[in-house]
Amino acid sequence: MISLALEIQSLTANDLSAALELDQACFGGLWNLQAYQRELESPNTELVGLFSNFSSSRMLGMGCFWSIVDEAHITIVAVHPHYHRQGLGAALLYSLLVRAYDRGLERATLEVRVSNSAAISLYQKFGFKTAGRRRGYYRDNGEDALVLWTGEMQQPDFPKTLDTWYTIVCDRLSQSEWQLVWK
Questions:
Q1: Are 15 and 49 in contact (CB under 8 A)?
Q2: Which value, in Å, is the radius of gyration of the alpha carbons in the chain?
Q3: What is the model's pTM?
Q4: Cα(178)–Cα(183) distance, integer angstroms
Q5: Based on the number of CB atoms within 10 Å of its own CB, is 37 exposed (0-12), middle (13-18) or buried (19 or more)?
Q6: Which residues contact residue 125 at a Cβ distance below 8 angstroms, ignoring those fewer than 6 apart?
Q7: Mean pLDDT of the residues in the chain
Q8: CA 62 to CA 83: how far, in whole Å?
Q9: How far is CA 53 from CA 15, 59, 71, 178, in A?
Q10: What residues are paired with 164 via a beta bridge?
Q11: CA–CA distance, 87 with 71 (Å, rounded to integer)
Q12: 144: which DSSP letter?
């Protein structure tokens, strides 16, 4: 069986047009070029892309979090619709949590549409718990958001948790003939 290589790496200015295309495909234009440029320039932002030479678009997904005090506020976990249900979202989320851990952050939080059961299930697999609800959070349709949290990322046993998640992510990717390659 041949595995298709996936790389997760920090975005650069050269990736902005691909980020905009992916944003349009996933969110209908959530952020504009200036917003992505601000994220690239901020020392408090981690903005990563999931790349494959297999795809003509090359960027299959992206993730972002803001480092706020001791918390990673995850703002984006996006996978191109053509690549859903192949484990790519889990790979992105795992990468974001590793980067948050490496920054010394204690917790992670995010908002997710109440109707997005696939994303909620993914986040729960990574230890996120529902902490609240934001009524009418999404401007496009007034849908509520669940606020999810996970913590204790700087506890002594968290590296073992990361190792377990890495194995789970890699196993899931291999089922779809992907292989994660770190740069």
A1: yes
A2: 16
A3: 0.93
A4: 16
A5: middle
A6: 90, 168
A7: 93
A8: 12
A9: 14, 9, 33, 12
A10: none
A11: 25
A12: -
First to last CA, the chain: 23
Residues annotated as part of the active site: 111, 123
pLDDT tens digits, one per residue of 90-140: 999 999 999 999 999 999 999 999 999 999 999 999 999 999 999 999 888
Burial of 132 (0-12, 13-18, 19+ CB in 10 A): exposed
Q: What is the SS3 string spanning 96-127?
A: HHHHHHHCCCCEEEEEEECCCHHHHHHHHHCC
What are 129's strand-pairing partners? 149
90, 77 contact by CB (below 8 A): no
Mapped onto helix, strand or coil, the DSSP state of residue 135 is coil
- In angstroms, the CA 50 to CA 40 distance is 16
- C-alpha of 97 from chain center: 9
d(CA 91, CA 85): 12
Burial profile 110-131: b = 16 or more Cβ within 10 angstroms, e = fewer: bbbeeeeeebbebbeebbbeee
CB 108 within 8 A of CB 147: no
